[in-house]
Amino acid sequence: MPHIILKMAAGRSEAMKHAVAENLIKAVIETLGVDESSVSVAIEDVAMSDWTGKVYVPDIQGKSDTIYKKPGYDPFR
Asked: Minimal CB count within 10 Å: which of 10, 14, 21, 52?
């Protein structure tokens, strides 16, 4: 039962959100061999001014052992 939470900078269209959700679902189905009915996707818009405090520190820096693709930026540099 994969549940994907995608946090991204606010401002993208609903069409873009639906497209990325569909692509994530396809990748999960193909890679994990699960049925589409078991996959869910949530998208959370985050204001860029809040990104470091709401996403980078708790979810990237604070959970580095669960990050499979690290970002190429450091908001503290």
From this structure: 14
